[in-house]
């Protein structure tokens, strides 16, 4: 029987047998996961882990890929605002509470999660030759989410070569650099090493106690690990940002951005585009940057001369609690269904702040616009995860050079007219073009009253 619909946008087609099978398999995996949280599988062996992970990965991939492949290639965001999960409906609020609750338990009540930790022992023994801990469990779950949802994103954006390559880079960096490399280093009894995280995002990397323990450990890779962090912070970051903008890190390498662009892709349209949100963004993100710089300086001053009487330890604990746990984790991920997928990246990440300053004032990266082709549909602004009103720039034919832009390219991907392009070019041309355009707009505004007065 045919179902009639009077909606301009047709309703989503019914789930087919493949999608239902994928959801059923995924559901079994999630049931096993939540049962493991309550220590229902203690001592039952590795079959629980492999069954749980296999069901989650297989079910998620089957459903996600089929859901998009049965539709024509191209942007398919129909009903995304009306959907209860992606439109801040009851489902979105419920999902937000669940994710926030899980992150709260992970950060502050990890001692009560021994059940799920023991389930991951087989994988930890295989990779690290030791029992699992809560950090290993988190890294494994995080990686599974990025990989599964990354495959789904590739199917969704299969018409865009840029999005396919970028998503593959995210998946590779998370699986290889953020999960496998640390595990292998631990198995070889070498220092814990996350190649894609460094100061100021990984603020602990430059703490005196961490540096001292690393250099005094006597391990073969200690010097390399320390040198890598210094190299990436002082040399690679400004050089790569000059040539490619902050997208080289925020949209291609970073795990925070990786989760946002895969698992959080369905919530990107929820970012606030208002001017007041922009003002709050600038205040908050640079405040966090100042916070981490001052905190790092205080800790080193205390370590060298003890002039602060241990006050730096308190400041470090406050930063670790408010920024390292609550903001970046609990709020940054838990609020995906409520505030969008880049809450942490937009309002709090100190690494994004540093990259944004370089991108704004000294970078070859920009998003060029062809204002004559813009039809003001608003797709670019709607799906900007960083809350940039892209349409405002496109209507004026102005290059987009915003410190917040992470270069995900979604504004260009969803544009039906090909108005927007991600490009690299000489910095002087970018700045000169912006200056001339702004000057011309101001000149027109001044001429408008004169013209109307002469007509009178």
Automatic annotation (TrEMBL):
Pfam families: Fer4_5 (PF12801), Fer4_9 (PF13187). One of its GO terms (molecular function) is metal ion binding. GO terms for cellular component: plasma membrane. Keywords: 4Fe-4S, Electron transport, Iron, Iron-sulfur, Membrane, Metal-binding, Transmembrane, Transmembrane helix, Transport. The chain crosses the membrane at residues 21-38, 44-65, 85-109, 134-155, 167-185, 220-244, 283-306, 318-339. Residues 365-393, 396-425 form the 4Fe-4S ferredoxin-type domain. Gene3D superfamilies: 3.30.70.20. This is 4Fe-4S binding protein. It comes from Oceaniferula flava.
């Amino acid at each position: 029987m045919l179902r009639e619909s009077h909606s301009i946008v047709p309703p989503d087609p019914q789930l087919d047998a493949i999608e239902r099978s994928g959801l059923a398999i995924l559901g079994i995996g999630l049931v096993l996961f939540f049962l493991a949280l309550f220590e229902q599988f203690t001592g039952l062996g590795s079959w629980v882990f492999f069954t749980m992970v296999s069901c989650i990965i297989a079910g998620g991939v089957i459903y996600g890929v089929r859901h998009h492949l049965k539709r024509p290639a191209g942007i398919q965001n129909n009903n995304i605002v009306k959907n209860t999960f992606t439109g801040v409906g009851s489902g979105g609020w419920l999902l937000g509470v669940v994710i926030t609750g899980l992150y709260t338990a992970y950060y502050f009540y990890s001692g009560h999660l021994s059940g799920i930790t023991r389930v991951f022992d087989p994988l930890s023994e295989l990779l690290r030759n030791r029992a699992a801990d809560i950090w290993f469990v988190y890294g494994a779950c995080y990686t599974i989410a990025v990989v599964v949802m990354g495959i789904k994103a590739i199917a969704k954006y299969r018409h865009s070569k840029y999005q396919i390559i970028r998503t593959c880079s995210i998946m590779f960096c998370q699986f290889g650099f953020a999960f496998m490399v640390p595990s292998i280093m631990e198995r070889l009894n070498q220092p814990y090493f996350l190649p894609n995280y460094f100061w100021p995002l990984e603020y602990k990397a430059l703490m005196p106690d961490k540096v001292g323990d690393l250099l005094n450990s006597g391990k073969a890779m200690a010097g390399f690990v320390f040198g890598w962090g210094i190299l990436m912070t002082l040399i690679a970051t400004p050089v790569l940002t000059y040539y490619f903008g902050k997208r080289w890190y925020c949209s291609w390498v970073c795990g925070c951005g990786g989760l946002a662009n895969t698992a959080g892709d369905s919530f990107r349209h929820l970012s606030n585009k208002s001017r007041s949100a922009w003002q709050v963004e600038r205040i908050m993100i640079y405040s966090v940057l100042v916070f981490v710089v001052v905190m790092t300086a205080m800790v080193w001053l205390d370590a060298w001369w003890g002039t602060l009487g241990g006050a730096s330890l308190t400041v470090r604990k406050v930063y670790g609690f408010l920024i390292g746990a609550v903001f970046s984790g609990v709020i940054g991920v838990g609020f995906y269904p409520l505030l969008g997928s880049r809450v942490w990246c937009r309002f709090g990440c100190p690494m994004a702040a540093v990259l944004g300053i370089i991108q704004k004032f000294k970078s070859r990266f920009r998003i060029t616009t062809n204002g004559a082709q813009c039809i003001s549909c608003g797709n670019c602004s709607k799906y900007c995860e960083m809350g940039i009103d892209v349409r405002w720039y496109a209507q004026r034919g102005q290059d987009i050079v915003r410190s917040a832009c992470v270069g995900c390219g979604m504004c260009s991907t969803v544009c039906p007219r090909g108005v927007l392009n991600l490009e690299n070019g000489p910095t002087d041309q970018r700045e000169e073009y912006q200056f001339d355009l702004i000057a011309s707009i101001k000149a027109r505004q001044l001429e408008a009253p004169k013209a109307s007065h002469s007509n009178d």
